[in-house]
């Protein structure tokens, strides 16, 4: 077989269902580009937690493992890489911190989710400044 016929055969060959499935399985979990940092609530100003992730469809914050807090989310596609980037901010108020009666400090984590699964950021501690 000459090279022209071989190239034509390769270009017209369709992937098998197993090859299609392997492509789907190779999609990545989200990746954090920025994780929330420890913060203080000062007087009447809330602490603002921020996170940013690539390959995510949704970001949200949870505080103390269970309490889902209001999250403001923005997203864009990086024009050079074509990767979807999601950013999220959450305001943690003094009331939220003071109403927590756990033995540990008040902590929040950012969760990044896509169709493949979710990942959790490192926890950020939020304290009331004295």
Automatic annotation (TrEMBL):
Residues 27-126 form the Netrin receptor UNC5A-D-like N-terminal domain. One of its GO terms (cellular component) is membrane. It comes from the Eukaryota. It is a single-pass type I membrane protein. Keywords: Developmental protein, Disulfide bond, Glycoprotein, Immunoglobulin domain, Membrane, Receptor. InterPro entries: Ig-like_fold (IPR013783), UNC5A-D-like_N (IPR057755). It is found in: Membrane. Belongs to the unc-5 family. This is Netrin receptor UNC5A-D-like N-terminal domain-containing protein. It comes from Rhamnusium bicolor.
């Amino acid at each position: 077989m000459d090279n022209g016929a071989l190239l034509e055969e390769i270009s017209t060959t369709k992937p098998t269902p197993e090859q299609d499935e392997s492509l789907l399985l190779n999609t990545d979990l989200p990746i954090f580009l920025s994780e929330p940092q420890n913060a203080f609530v000062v007087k009447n100003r809330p602490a603002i937690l921020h996170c940013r992730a690539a390959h995510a469809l949704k970001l949200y914050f949870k505080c103390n493992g269970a309490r889902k807090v209001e999250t403001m989310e923005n997203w864009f596609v990086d024009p050079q890489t074509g990767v979807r980037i999601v950013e999220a901010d959450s305001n943690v108020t003094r009331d939220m911190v003071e109403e927590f009666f756990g033995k540990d400090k008040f902590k929040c984590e950012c969760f990044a989710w896509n169709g493949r699964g979710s990942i959790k950021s490192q926890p950020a501690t939020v304290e009331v400044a004295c």
